[in-house]
Design a protein that fits this description.
membrane, transmembrane helix, transmembrane, mainly alpha
Length: 258
């Protein structure tokens, strides 16, 4: 990615974060204002999708490119099903949708991993992955305990859906440590990007199930952290799925001689 695009992306993220800092409650907005707020909320992801579309002629690894596109589209889709899903099932659908995003992200990381296990499996990588996994297990455990106490008896399905989502998120964070070769340049970008996304989930689940409070930071500081995570994942992945320069096919007309 060029410095101009990254700078433009940063400006968009800052402006949209400021918008949500002062926006009134959703119930106070008209339909048009609500639609605008949803577009602004997904503006960073839409920018990345636009960048991918512009660079589509440079595809080197099609599977990685399509998985990255699916990952971004799924993030945007969270603003769509809000309108046609019953409010009683919205939270469960949201959690299932989040699990699907991490599943696609884990598949994306798997496609980028070196084929030789010795290139990525070493004590340092394993130690980092285990420590990160333990951090998220502890972070999610408070929410899971509350959900078990309040929802397990009346709604076992909801408990297991949340459990699967937490396991999927933690697993994806651990997998991110094994995408690049140890000590390779910029290896940390995918790791930091994935952790940035997952930390937001920890905060959201704690707000919903432990503190019983509206997660008012999710569209401001949370949005900033999430947008940085998306940019890091996209930037690092595009280096592996795109050629350095556009592929140009030159056609030469050959005339018959004699």
């Amino acid at each position: 990615m060029s410095l101009k695009f990254v700078s433009f992306y940063g400006v968009v993220v800052l402006l949209t974060s400021l918008f949500f800092q002062f926006v009134p409650l959703p119930k106070m907005l008209s339909w048009q204002e609500m639609l605008l707020s949803k577009l602004l909320n997904q503006a960073p992801v839409l920018l990345c999708l636009g960048y991918l579309w512009v660079q589509r002629n440079r595809i080197k690894e099609a599977n990685i490119f399509y998985l990255l596109t699916a990952f971004l589209l799924l993030n945007v889709f969270s603003e769509v099903y809000y309108y046609f899903v019953n409010e009683d099932y919205l939270l469960m659908i949201n959690i299932c949708h989040n699990s699907l995003i991490y599943l696609i992200l884990a598949m994306l990381f798997k496609k980028q991993s070196p084929q030789v296990r010795g290139q990525i499996l070493n004590p340092k990588n394993i130690s980092y992955a285990v420590l990160a996994g333990l951090f998220f297990i502890v972070g999610f455990s408070f929410s899971l305990l509350k959900v078990y106490q309040k929802h397990y008896a009346p709604n076992k399905l909801f408990f297991f859906v949340l459990l699967i989502a937490m396991v999927m998120t933690t697993t994806t964070v651990c997998v991110s440590f094994f995408v690049d070769k140890p000590f390779s340049r910029n290896w940390y970008k995918l790791v930091v990007g994935t952790i940035a996304m997952a930390v937001l989930d920890v905060y959201l689940y704690l707000s919903l199930f432990v503190f019983d409070a509206y997660s008012n930071l999710i569209y401001t500081i949370g949005k900033l952290i999430f947008s940085i995570g998306i940019l890091l994942i996209v930037e690092r992945t595009m280096r592996k799925c795109l050629n350095k320069a556009p592929l140009i096919v030159l056609y030469k007309k050959v005339s018959d001689i004699g």
